[in-house]
Structure formats: C-alpha cells, structure tokens
Amino acid sequence: MNTADQYLKTIYVVQKQEDGPASTGSIADSLGVSPASANEMIGKLEERGLAEHEKYKGVRLTDDGIVRARDALQTYCIIERFLANVLAVEEFRDEARELEAVIDDTVAERLDTIIDRQPECPDCFDPETDACACLEIAAAPVEPDQ
Amino acid sequence: MVAVSVSQRIASDDQLARLLQIGIVLEEVVEARAHHHYQSLDAELDEEIEDLLADAADESAEHRRRLESLIEGLGVESVPFDEIEELVGARYGRTQPEDFDGVLYDQLCNEETAYKFYDDLIQAIEESDAEFSVDRAELLDELHAIREDEAEGVSEVTEVMERR
Fold first, then answer.
1. Domain-by-domain residue ranges, chain B?
2. What number is the ipTM of this complex?
3. CATH class entry, domain A3-62
4. Which helix (H) or strand (E) holds A84?
5. Which of these, A90, B124, B129, B157, is most buried using a 10 Å CB contact count?
6. B113-120 average pLDDT score
C-alpha cells in the first residue's frame, strides 16, 4: 500500500470519527507525521481529485477518494485478518501497521483467497481498536460459572 | 485514535522474517491452487496447460524451500504447508475458474502477484539500513533470482494465452 493510500485510509477513518471534515492536525497525529508533511500530501491528493481541502474546516474525500480509501481499508483488514488467523500473530495490529506499506493490493487479494473475510468489510473497521470489529481472535478460555 | 505508520522500511529481523513467511504462504497458495486446477482438468486433459501448472507447482515448492532456508537463518519457524493447503481447499470453490482461459488467467494473477511481492520486498530491503542476521547480499541475490523466475512465469503464461 503506497503512502497516498495510507493517507486516504486515515482521512476516511478520521472523517467518520469526527463526523465531518478531517482536520490536518488529526490526520498528522494519526499518521505520526508533521502537519507540514500532512499538508504536502493532502495537496497532492487534491491535485489528483481525491480530496478537497477547505480552509479552517479540514479535508473531505471526493467520491473517487472514498472508493480508493475503502479499497485501502479493505487491504488493511485483509492483512490484519491474515496475520491473526493464518499466521496466528498475537500483535497483529502492530504488525499490520508495520507491514502494510510493503503489501500491495494485488498481494492482499491473493491472501484474501484463504481468509474468511466478512461481507460487510470494510465497514467492519473499528477506528477505536484500529481493527476489524468482527475479527475473531482465539479468546482465552472462559471460566465456567461456579 | 488510529495510529498508522507511513514507514516503508524494514527495521528488524522479525519484520523481515514475517515478510518471508508471507512469501512462503503466497508460494503455498500458488502451489495448492495449481494442484487443484491440475486435478479439475481431468475430464478433458490439455497437455500444454497441464505441463504449465505442474511446472508452476514445482517452481513454487522450490521457492518455498529457498525462503524457508532464509527464515531458518533468522531463527524463525516456517509456515505449515498442510494447514495452508487445507485453507486453500476449503475456500477454493468460491474462486475456482470455470474454464481453461480462467485457469490461465488465475495462473497469470499468481505469477504477477508473486513478482509484485518480491519486487516490493527487494525495494523495502534495499531502502532499509537495518542489520539483519542473514547476509544482506545473499538475501538480495536469492530474492532477485526468485523474482526473475516469477517474471519468466508471467511471460510463459502470457505466451500460452496469446497462442490460444
């Protein structure tokens, strides 16, 4: 997933969280980059017709931007689910974040053929936990009622 | 709040090992899909496609062994082939191609995907200044060789598709 896609995914999630345009500060915080870097990339996304920036309000994705962002989010869900369910990685969220830049959409699509992703993906993505909300992790055994 | 890293580099042995494991799974998926395709062709055998798929499965098995040897050098376990084959088998019906053209197209996707994966992996390693437990030059030589095989695979499938 390239850097532009990582931004689109983040803007999409922040927009949903803030229920309106995403502020540059929130986007920069989420990505762990400086506001200047975020502004530069937002400018590039605007040039490509993927986002619109309104002064003092924030960034809003265009329809094309939303499509790309949802694809990127889906790729991210595939990586998380693959790490958790196929490779049994405990820290799958951290690792998904580390690896997402190296995993291309086409690679994720092939990995998707062996995971059991839910049809609601990527609407299942929960920004609070930074993970697919319906991702089933092998839970610790439940203590029987006394 | 979401926290997404925009780092594109590989910083540690663990990250490298995980990516090599993903490479092994991709090879296993290719190998298992080629095997399933091969079996599903029994009604009307087509020698050219049969040979192509058999070669693809052999090549994937060979790549898998080479990747396994690399991750062994990193002190990490490989990925169990039986389990991956089971997963491919369980979900295969949903994505099974319907005819020879579909089989060839699926094989083209396999080769192209593998090429893209190794290409991105090589780039990420080259951009990283991390010290790995395996020799960097040997690691890159091995990955370049595997990537070259995938490029040849793409050409072979494309040639067969163009002839038909």
1. 13-163
2. 0.82
3. mainly alpha
4. helix A63-85
5. B157
6. 94
Interface test with B, best of A98, A111, A112, A116 (most B CBs within 10 A): A98
Q: Is B26 on the interface with A (CB under 8 A)?
A: yes
- B1 CB within 8 Å of a chain A CB: yes
pLDDT for residue A143 is more than 70: no
- SS3 sequence of chain B: CCCCCCCCCCCCHHHHHHHHHHHHHHHHHHHHHHHHHHHHCCCCCCHHHHHHHHHHHHHHHHHHHHHHHHHHHCCCCCCCHHHHHHHHHHHHHHHCCCCHHHHHHHHHHHHHHHHHHHHHHHHHHHHCCCCCCCCHHHHHHHHHHHHHHHHHHHHHHHHHHHHC
Q: Where are the domains of chain A?
A: 3-62, 67-131
Distance (Å, rounded) from C-alpha A42 to C-alpha B30? 38
Contact A31 B15 (CB under 8 A): no
Q: What percent of chain B has pLDDT over 70?
A: 90
CATH top class, domain B13-163: mainly alpha
Q: Distance of CA B142 to CAs B31, B126, B148, Å?
A: 19, 13, 10
Residues of chain B contacting residue A18, judged by C-beta atoms under 8 Å apart: none
Q: Which two tokens mark B138?
A: 């040997």
Looking at the domain that runs over A67-131, which CATH code has it been given?
Answer: 1.10.60
**Does the pLDDT at position B148 exceed 80?**
yes
Phi, psi of A75 (to 5 degrees): -60, -40
